[in-house]
Amino acid sequence: MLASVGISEEKESDKYRVIFRDRSTWSTTRRAGMEFAASKIILDEENDHIMGAHILGPNAEEVINIFAMAMRLGLRTSDIRKVVFTYPTICSDIRYML
């Protein structure tokens, strides 16, 4: 599954930081029986807001909802890192994607 929200890397400028994570070897990916998984998060470094998120792998459609909500509500990445998601779920990996 592939899901995305917000801007893509093509819209990137100097003020944005791209965090790419190859999640293929993460336990949540292996547990789901998937061979490939990755995430790319685009952050506005000036205000710590998420500008875009692109998720490949199991349950991407659920994880992208968290990123879409954070973007709509104007949450900072530091706010999202404080949230405790149930383990073992793909959402529990969000703090490591940032």
Structural notes for this entry:
- With 98 residues, the protein is an alpha+beta fold.
- It has four helices and four strands, in the order E-E-H-E-E-H-H-H.
- Strands 1-4-3-2 form a four-stranded antiparallel sheet, with helices on one face.
- A hairpin with a 4-residue loop joins strand 3 and strand 4.
- The radius of gyration is 13 Å and the shape is globular.
- The model has no long low-confidence stretch (mean pLDDT 91).
Short description:
The protein has 98 residues and is of the alpha+beta class. It has four helices and four strands; from the N terminus they run E-E-H-E-E-H-H-H.
Summary keywords:
single chain, 98 residues, alpha+beta
Give the neighbour order of strands across the main sheet.
1-4-3-2
Q: Could you name the ranges where pLDDT drops below 50 across 5 or more consecutive residues? A: none
Radius of gyration: 13 Å
The biggest beta sheet, please?
Answer: 4 strands, antiparallel
Structural class: alpha+beta
Q: Averaged pLDDT, please?
A: 91
Give the end-to-end Cα distance, rounded to a whole number of Å. Answer: 20 Å
- What shape does the CA trace take? globular
Q: Report the strand count.
A: 4
Helix content estimate: 25-40%
What is the fold's blueprint, element by element?
Layout: E1 2-6, E2 16-22, H1 27-31, E3 38-44, E4 49-56, H2 60-73, H3 77-81, H4 94-97
Antiparallel strand pairs: 1-4, 2-3, 3-4
